Amino acid sequence: MARRIFAFFCVFLLFGAALFASDYPKRIIYDTDLGGDVDDGLALSLIHAQISRGEVDLLAVTITNASRFVPRYVRMLNAYFGRPDIPIGVPEQPCAGMDGKFMQQTLDALETKYVADPSAPLPAESAVPLLRRVLAESPDHSVTFLMVGFATNLARLLDSPADEISPLTGKELIAQKADQTILMAGNYQDRPAEFVEYNVSYDIEAARRIADDWPTPIVWEGQETGARIYFPVERLHKIFASAPEMPAYDSCCRYGLPNMALWDLVVPFYLVHPEYLRLSEPGRVSFREDGSCVFTPEANGRDRYMILPTEEEIARLAEAFAWLVSQPPKPKN
């Protein structure tokens, strides 16, 4: 009980202080492999809570899962929060394709409730041109990339040539317009050296491109961090008792996990509240040909990874996540 009270008190203080910072809202691009599991949708719900709090400005959602259901699912979730027109970037082939059963079931149940005209064209275009346009239209050093899936889109952006959108190459455009990158990939603390993390495994070459050539500072969330942060399904039911038809919660129920690990929520949350997690010393992340990762300390290295949270930090994070993902949409004017 004392730990829960302490966690709640910390959440209250930190959330109350956030909006007084001078660098809000933070401009973000959310790149996701939504479809294989449901924490991506919870993370997008958390981002919408951050938008409502004035903490972030979501410029685009880009997808690295080629499933036909994902753009519709993202539009539905955005529409639930009153933001149906947020641009959506869809991958070009070849790309992973995962038709998570929960997506179709949630769409069947809720799409017509939240999307005014489900037959209308999606606010979607190819991911790389969208990313180039969003960057080109942004002030210098103002955009944060949040990646919680495969590195496919960002690697293709990195390798994109100058075009009618911008005279800069992808790498030049990222270096000029982006400020930092926070992503969930790899494992740095508690696995054998040959372990290959899921987000890396689907597109190892793309992960290697990001590790080798990405031009902004990177904070890496290893798989081992989010795997320790969860709230049981019983807690989910209590949290969403007042919002049973929230799309992400509906999908959680259909997905059927006994417990919900919260890997992807860590990434957007850390952007606004970096004080909740500690980081490693600076260094450089690299991936071997088999996808296993290496962290090499360097005094002025580009990369840092999140250190495993303590039990106290886990309690604070879980309480904060619960607080945010259960926030209802802002009332329409």
How helical, in percent, are the residues?
Answer: 40-55%
The secondary structure category is alpha/beta
What value does the Rg take, in angstroms? 19 Å
What is the CATH topology descriptor?
Inosine-uridine Nucleoside N-ribohydrolase, Chain A
What do the pLDDT scores average to?
A: 90
Principal-axes geometry comes out as globular
CATH superfamily: Ribonucleoside hydrolase-like
Number of individual domains:
1
Task: Describe the overall structure.
There is one protein chain. The protein is α/β, with parallel strands linked by helices and 333 residues long. The chain contains 14 helices and twelve strands. The chain has helices at residues 2-18, 39-52, 69-80, 101-114, 127-136, 152-158, 170-177, 198-201, 204-213, 223-226, 233-239, 247-255, 266-272, 311-325; strands spanning 26-32, 56-63, 88-90, 124-126, 143-147, 178-184, 218-221, 230-232, 259-261, 283-287, 293-297, 303-305. Helix 4 runs antiparallel to helix 12 (247-255). 47% of the residues are buried. Mean pLDDT is 90; it is low at 5-9.
Structural features:
333 residues; 14 helices; alpha/beta; Inosine-uridine Nucleoside N-ribohydrolase, Chain A; eight-stranded parallel sheet
Write the layout of secondary structure elements.
Elements: H1 2-18, E1 26-32, H2 39-52, E2 56-63, H3 69-80, E3 88-90, H4 101-114, E4 124-126, H5 127-136, E5 143-147, H6 152-158, H7 170-177, E6 178-184, H8 198-201, H9 204-213, E7 218-221, H10 223-226, E8 230-232, H11 233-239, H12 247-255, E9 259-261, H13 266-272, E10 283-287, E11 293-297, E12 303-305, H14 311-325
Parallel strand pairs: 1-2, 1-5, 2-3, 3-4, 5-6, 6-7, 7-12
Antiparallel strand pairs: 8-9, 10-11
